[in-house]
Design brief:
The protein is mainly alpha-helical. The protein folds into four domains: 114 residues, no CATH class; 47 residues, no CATH class; 94 residues, no CATH class; 133 residues, no CATH class. It is built from 16 helices and nine strands. The strands form four sheets. A three-stranded antiparallel β-sheet has the order 1-2-7. Strands 3-4 form a two-stranded antiparallel sheet. Helix 14 packs across helix 15. The longest helix has 20 residues. The chain starts with 14 loop residues before the first helix and ends in a 12-residue tail after the last helix. The N terminus is likely disordered.
Length: 439
């Protein structure tokens, strides 16, 4: 690298390579009891310290609830219209989940203690038995007579071809379960073309519960990114929040996003307090994915005049010895090019904490303002002792934003930071072209 020059930008790689990079980071044995890689389905264990999912407070229910010591969604909905003793409800009730798409009713036809294994679609009958009932009805039979006298039982058909769905196929033409067939039907049979089905099946997901989320039906790269961020947050001690993950997935669907990095920091900062979990996840996504891009040459973290401290991996301060997760280093107000490049090189090589880096940038800003007024201040080959004297004088006269002089200690620190910068430039050869009396 030539003296006092900035690092060139790293070359970017294409989208396909990026997907391969992210997938290569994924853990093969991550939460085996909860994450099903083959079905792309996460089913959180209830009442643990690592997943935000709890058991419904209704004793006879036992189904998942979003919050601790609260009823599940179905119990809460039915409780709203319940007119009996609420305490009795809480003790004994078990919610009907057929309307949620989670539990589908089984066909009513029985014979000799056995029951038809197919899913009910009309009047409690599977499609095959409903078709037979229509024949019996035309011959004058009542529905009760049909239920009593019908002896034909059918085995369960195969499983819906939507990834992660466990419901039985009810439509042979497209191999979909009842709920997904209704979802596919959309606005009527005119839309049920092969082309539309191919578009539907690529994006379809199973119907999930409060403690679940599915990563089916999304771009391969986006799915890998979400998994990668979840695994990194797992390492950091964050719990998995299935409801929040579903919300993020919905946001990506609505905007047809290919990457979590398409969600900007401005959008994240604009999320309300009720979306704290979502904001935390998206900020983690920007942090971990950007760091990964830097590691593999997607981004040059030192490009431009505003650097993201989280991507640089700098410590917060000497008193807070952990990696900074937010904030920038802004070089835009350092108006003398050689000073700006010197500061950038110093931060790249020394990797100071964020507070020290910010103080050094402030030092360089004051020095630049002094050098701009000097004849040779902008050209390091023309620096003289008088130019450095002017810089020191401005340090002694430096003021805070309110117009008052900095404390003597702060002004001494400005001078020490400047000396450190000059010494760094001399020791690394970055100021070899500066006359001797200029340093």
């Amino acid at each position: 690298m030539s003296p006092l020059t900035a690092t060139p930008s790293a070359a970017l790689v294409d989208r396909q390579d990026w997907v391969a990079v992210v997938e290569a980071q994924l853990l093969g044995e991550w939460r085996n009891q909860e994450w099903d890689q083959e079905r792309l389905l996460f089913t959180g264990l209830l009442d643990t310290s690592v997943t935000l999912a709890f058991t419904c407070v209704t004793p006879e229910c036992g189904e998942p609830s979003r919050t601790k010591e609260s009823p599940c969604y179905e119990c809460a909905q039915e409780l709203k219209s319940y007119t009996g003793d609420r305490e009795a409800f809480r003790r004994t009730h078990r919610a009907n989940r057929s309307w949620t798409g989670h539990e589908l009713q089984q066909c009513l036809i029985t014979h000799d203690g056995d029951r038809c294994q197919r899913t009910a679609t009309n009047r409690g009958l599977c499609r095959s038995h409903f078709s037979k009932w229509q024949q019996w009805q035309r011959r004058g039979s009542t529905f009760d007579e049909y239920l009593h006298d019908c002896t034909d039982l059918y085995a369960r058909r195969g499983t819906c071809q939507v990834i992660g769905c466990e419901h039985e196929i009810v439509t042979a033409a497209h191999a979909l379960c009842g709920p997904h067939d209704q979802q596919f039907s959309g606005h009527g049979k005119m839309t049920r073309s092969r082309k539309r089905f191919d578009e539907f099946i690529v994006k379809a997901r199973p119907f999930v519960r409060i403690h679940q989320f599915s990563l089916a039906g999304m771009p391969q790269g986006l799915r890998a990114e979400i998994l990668y961020v979840l695994q990194r947050r797992d390492d950091e001690g964050f719990f998995v929040h299935p409801t929040m993950v579903r919300t993020v997935i919905k946001k990506c669907d609505e905007r047809n996003l290919e990457s979590l990095l398409e969600i900007t920091e401005i959008e994240i900062a604009g999320l309300t307090r009720t979306n704290t979990a979502q904001r935390s996840f998206l900020r983690s996504a920007r942090l971990h994915l950007t760091r990964l891009q830097v590691r593999y040459g997607y981004q040059n973290p030192y490009a431009g005049d505003i650097w993201d401290v989280a991507v640089l991996g700098l410590m917060a301060s000497t008193s807070r010895p952990y990696l900074a997760t937010r904030g920038v280093l802004d070089f835009t107000e350092i108006t003398v090019a050689w000073v700006k490049n010197l500061v950038k090189d110093w931060i790249r090589h020394v990797e100071p904490d964020v507070v020290t880096a910010g103080h050094t940038i402030r030092t360089a800003k004051i020095a630049s303002q002094a050098l701009l007024l000097r004849t040779g201040g902008h050209d390091p080959t023309r620096l003289r002792l008088a130019d450095m004297t002017a810089v020191v004088r401005d340090f002694n006269l430096a003021t805070r934003p309110d117009g008052l002089l900095y404390s003597p200690g702060t002004r001494a620190q400005l001078l020490n930071s400047w000396r450190d910068l000059i010494e760094f430039g001399r020791s690394t050869g970055r100021m070899d072209n500066v006359p001797g009396d200029g340093t």
